[in-house]
Amino acid sequence: MRRGPDATGRRGEQAFRTVRIVCVGGGPAGLYFAILMKRSHPDHEIVVLERNRPGDTYGFGVVFSDATLEELAAADHESYEAITESFYHWDDIDIHYRGERLTSTGHGFSGLARAALLEILEARARALGVELRHGVEVASEEPCAGADLVLAADGVNSAMRARYADAFGPRIDVRPNRFVWLGTTKPFPAFTFHFRETEHGLWRVHAYQYRSATPAPEAISTFIVEATDATWRAAGLDTASERETARFLEEVFAEELGSHRLIRNRSIWRGFPTVRNRAWRHGNIVLVGDAAHSAHFSIGSGTRLAMIDSISLHESLLAHDLEVAPALEAYETARRPEVESVQRAAQASLEWFEGTERFMETEPLQFAFNLITRSLRITHSNLAVRDPEFTARVDRRFADRAAAAAGTSPVESDPAPPPLLAPFRLRGLELKNRVVVSAMCQYSAEDGTPDDWHLVNLGSRAIGGAGLVMSEMTDVSRAGRISLGCTGMYETAHVGAWKRIVDFVHRHSDAAIGMQLGHAGRKASTRLSWEGDNEPLEEDGWPIMAASPVPWFEHSPAPREMTREDMEAVTGQFRRAAEMSEEAGFDLLEIHFAHGYLLASFISPLTNLREDEYGGDVDGRLRFPLEVLAAVRSVWPAEKPISVRISAVDWAEGGMTADGAVEVTRRLKTAGVDIIDVSAGQTVPWQEPVYGRQYQTPFSDRIRHEVGIATMAVGNISSFMDVNTILAAGRADLCCLARAHLWDPYWTRHAAYASGAPIPWPPQYSTLDGYTPRFEWGY
To answer: Is the pTM of this model over 0.85?
Structure first.
């Protein structure tokens, strides 16, 4: 660990040289950085330039978590002490929904007036000898001339960032929802959310107290109101003044406000700007705080991000002996991943509030859990530590509803098992739990025939406790294979080979087993994945076909455009493969409509360029896939469910979007599909996916609520806390895990053990019943 500076600004025995620093912007980032640098060495020449006059600020309260306050205490104890003397602290989150108040505790936040925070930081800076200049508009480079370091801390609308836009590469995404920042004398003892529906639409309130009634004359709270653009316009607020806005909202929230009024302070309706930059540094200039990045107010991290930026930059400068260039590089390298993680959480949170309408029919306890876990920073496991009573209520409610829906006996254990162990019913199929081994191609078959590898691969994961194991994508014809190693269901011998695997799963486990049928289309006739993913065979390739003659890579062979005769032949192949899958004993059938394969190539406008009845709008593009689905449904037993895997988005301009996925799914539901396996991408090689934890789950969430159909979530789901969170929040009905099951075939058993509800081992492993391992499972 590095030794920090002592009071004389020394690191160990090494003295620092002094530098001249100009901080453009006197908000929390600029002031706090000035404080830390001046505290390190009183001889640093530091000036803070602020465009506003003293005390002229906007907004009301800022929020710090308990963990953030610990970071501030370690960085500068004097300012921390002043902050803690002025804040209002609370532990609870109150959610007012459909006439109920649902409370979760153990969260630990503090509210503080923004004006008070600036006064504290300004006083501390002056006491240390920082020069503060107010009313200074930095309109040229002159005020920064001669500085060793220029801190661009001038906010979301940064003039410094705009001046050097070519270097910083700013990207600002103004979100569609409208919000207005107000205050009120109504004291809110918790972080409070209200949801009020009027004839204009749904209004959301984010409220928290930031000033206590003592010793101040009265309590003050932040009262942020948010609505969709359509609701805002329908209420006529697009032309309203600040006074008219406050008067209107006082009427809407008369019950919530009681006798209290709303307070205005530059309370203008606007869309939230999410700021990102390609680079944070240019020469001796560095962006910090909102100039570099912004995070939606619903997770309360804007001020925290700014002040932790200052701490991180200060530490980097000290570590590099005030050599600006390497210090700025190290700062950005270390800090950017942390900020981007927060921004992903903020994005998930803001999207939840942008789409709250879809959750308004949810029962109250699930709605509250969904809201609390919306950003993914609080999980089922984390909440169980913060508020075990609330989480136990969520688990009990989930278990009771799951048992009723599945037609099984109510769970009598106390506490109830976690959501991942709840049963689930699709038609006549009952799954013992909500964990699915996702379909994963093994590229190890001989002319489509699965062998011992497939038996062990699927059999071990069934014994491992999953509720459903899926075959890999199994092709309906020899020409439809991705590679020479892909499994198939097109020869009589395939039925027996698959039946051997199905019988093993049924005989030795409680798992169900599903068959995924597909046709590779334009992605056929390629090498094994470890020899070059999607790369065409160098020899012994075969002719390929697709919706349109669009090759995968530029150097890939172009598929021929399918004729009506081709479509009839492929439809027959899917029908026959479905009959063979039933003969082999599979419990569920899934048809692959995703990842750029044959049927997906009809659905995406990027790969379907047809001008006949099988192209054009969504109904035309779905015509052939729905013909295949109808043929399969006609021969698949009525008591057995059918799933369809889709790519909800293509991650490419002009391709499938989340809106389009909802429309596609509506038609699939009408056609008799029982559950949607919601994946994304892999339609074109130039896709630009937005990766992250559970990165595809939001598509499942939206489809489930807007279409009213069961869904499977897939995509970077690896921990049992993630699975429990997704299920309890209602974002999916089943969770598919791929790599996690490759790493640990017994994932479900280990998750059950860690959750305190172990699954009995098969008799062959009976000596493990009651065994307590002497190591952590690592979940």
So the answer is: yes
